[in-house]
Amino acid sequence: MRLYLFEEHRTTKARVVLDTGTTGLTGHGVAHCNPADEDVPEIGDELSASRALHDLGRQLTTAADGDMEAAQTTQQWTPGVTRGAP
Q1: Can you tell me the distance from the alpha carbon of 16 to that of 22, in angstroms, rounded to the nearest whole number?
Q2: In a designed cystine with 55, which of 4, 27, 49, 79 is the match (CB 3.0 to 4.6 A)?
Q3: SS3 for 42?
Q4: Around Cβ 36, how many Cβ atoms within 10 Å?
Q5: In the chain, what are the domains?
Q6: Contact (CB, 8 A) for 48 and 16
Q7: How far apart are CA 5 and CA 53, in angstroms?
Q8: What ranges does the record give for the region Disordered, renumbered to this chain (predicted)?
Q9: What Rg do the C-alpha atoms of the chain give, in angstroms?
Q10: 43 vs 33: CA distance, rounded Å
C-alpha cells in the first residue's frame, strides 16, 4: 500500500493505492483549511489520508461482498464484527 499526499493553496489531497497482486484499488481523500483557521499542514495530511483510507476500506468491503456473492457464500459483513477472532 502506498500513500501519496499533495498540498496546494490550503488544500491537501491524498491518494492511497493498494495492489493485492490480483486487484488494484485506489482511495481518495481531500481536506480544505478553513480561511479563518491557521494553516497547519499536518492536520490536512491526517484528514485527507484518513478520508482516502476510509474510501479504500469502503471499496474493499464492496469487493468482498461481490466476491462472496459470486462464490455463493451466505456470510455477510457486519460492521464492528471480526470473524474468526477470539
Answers
A1: 17
A2: 27
A3: helix
A4: 5
A5: 2-70 (3.30.160.240)
A6: no
A7: 12
A8: 65-86
A9: 17
A10: 9
